[in-house]
């Protein structure tokens, strides 16, 4: 396995299955780990968030604090990025000042450009196409539950064309898991990415498949996964069609009853009640009190869902540590 030292973390297809599992194991080892020796002391990381965040931003900030890394947070209104300065020029500036960059935003090409031109490790904190740090946390919960990733079947309900569907599909293919998307045909991931995953599965023993019948898909699941139906940055006009198309794929008690899944995961945030501004607006317009997952199912599986959120910090800490410590990082040598 290649060292992670000085490498960017941009998308899961850049990693081997072994490398993904290494980071999953490292996340599990990070539980309770607060390194007071600050192994990355003196480091500086720019956190660029062009989209909002609770979990990912807090995870990067807390992980950096625990590892001795100073952070500078840039939101869309407090930098020149994209408006007055190109991503390429910004990368060349930040590369002279920082040891690493964390980026959340729109197209994947932006995070790739930052990495190419900054000369320092760049961590993808979510793009439209990919959310790789999330998958490391998700798989840590899967491995903790099943003791392995191999042959575990994860069924994703909802819009599988976006960051979560894509990244889960690639992650499953690489680690020998079975990925099933339960969605209408037009919500299936990009054909080219499916072909790449099918090729990967030939060597890992994993599989990718698609079901338009939600209950048949549920019957196959060891893990049920869902995400919001409308992602950050999408226009409000898409709600009506999304609701009509995806309501049959809501994770509700019929899905749970049709399934033997041990865990239900959700990357969060979630619209499972009326306690959010968006949830309330959707209710006023479309009369639905809960969207991608019902409140009953959400609360029934809240222990896994919030453990998954906890693993965001642990996995991001491991990813930063692996990239910013100078030597090959052996997870089994972590002093806890
Ligand atoms: N799951 C996730 O990325 O959450 P945030 O948007 O709060 O960072
Ligand atoms: N698909 C969601 C994921 C949030 C973590 C979004 O991009 O908004």
Query: What is CATH's topology name of the largest domain?
Result: Rossmann fold
Whole-number mean pLDDT: 94
Low-confidence stretches: none
Helix content: 40-55%
CATH superfamily of the largest domain: Aspartate/ornithine carbamoyltransferase
Short description:
The chain has 336 residues and is α/β, with parallel strands linked by helices. It has helices at 17-29, 55-67, 87-94, 108-118, 132-146, 163-175, 191-204, 214-220, 239-246, 253-257, 277-286, 295-300, 302-324; strands at 44-49, 70-74, 100-104, 122-124, 153-157, 178-182, 207-211, 223-226, 263-266.
Strand and helix map with partners:
Blueprint: H1 17-29, E1 44-49, H2 55-67, E2 70-74, H3 87-94, E3 100-104, H4 108-118, E4 122-124, H5 132-146, E5 153-157, H6 163-175, E6 178-182, H7 191-204, E7 207-211, H8 214-220, E8 223-226, H9 239-246, H10 253-257, E9 263-266, H11 277-286, H12 295-300, H13 302-324
Parallel strand pairs: 1-2, 1-3, 3-4, 5-6, 5-8, 6-7, 8-9
Helix pairs in contact: 1-5, 1-6, 1-13, 2-13, 3-4, 5-13, 6-7
Bound molecules: phosphoric acid mono(formamide)ester and norvaline (NVA).
């Amino acid at each position: 396995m290649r060292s992670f030292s000085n490498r960017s973390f941009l998308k899961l297809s850049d990693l081997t299955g072994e490398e993904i599992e290494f980071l999953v194991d490292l996340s599990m080892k990070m539980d309770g780990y607060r390194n007071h020796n600050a192994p990355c002391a003196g480091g500086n990381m720019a956190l660029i968030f062009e989209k909002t965040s609770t979990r990912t931003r807090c995870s990067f900030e807390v992980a950096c604090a625990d590892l001795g890394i100073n952070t500078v947070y840039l939101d869309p209104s407090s930098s020149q990025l994209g408006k007055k300065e190109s991503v390429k020029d910004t990368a060349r500036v930040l590369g002279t000042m920082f040891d690493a960059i964390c980026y959340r935003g729109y197209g994947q090409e932006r995070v790739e450009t930052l990495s190419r031109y900054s000369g320092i490790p760049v961590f993808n904190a979510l793009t439209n196409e990919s959310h790789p740090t999330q998958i490391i946390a998700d798989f840590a919960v899967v491995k903790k539950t099943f003791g392995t990733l191999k042959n575990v079947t994860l069924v994703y309900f909802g819009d599988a064309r976006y960051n979560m569907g894509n990244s889960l599909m690639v992650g499953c293919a690489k680690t020998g898991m079975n990925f099933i998307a339960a969605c209408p045909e037009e919500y299936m991931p990009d054909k080219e990415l499916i072909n790449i995953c099918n090729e990967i599965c030939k060597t890992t023993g994993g599989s990718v498949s698609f079901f338009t019948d939600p209950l048949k898909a549920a019957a196959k699941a060891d893990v049920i996964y869902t995400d919001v139906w409308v992602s950050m940055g999408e226009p409000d006009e898409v709600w009506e069609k999304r609701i009509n198309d995806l309501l049959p794929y809501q994770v509700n008690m019929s899905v749970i009853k049709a399934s033997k899944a041990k865990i239900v995961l959700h990357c969060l945030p979630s619209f499972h009640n009326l306690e959010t501004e968006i949830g309330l607006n959707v209710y006023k317009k479309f009369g639905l009190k809960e969207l991608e997952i019902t409140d009953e199912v959400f609360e029934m599986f809240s222990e896994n869902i919030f453990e998954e959120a906890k693993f965001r910090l642990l996995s991001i800490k491991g990813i930063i540590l692996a990239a910013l410590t100078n030597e090959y990082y052996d997870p089994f040598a972590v002093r806890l």
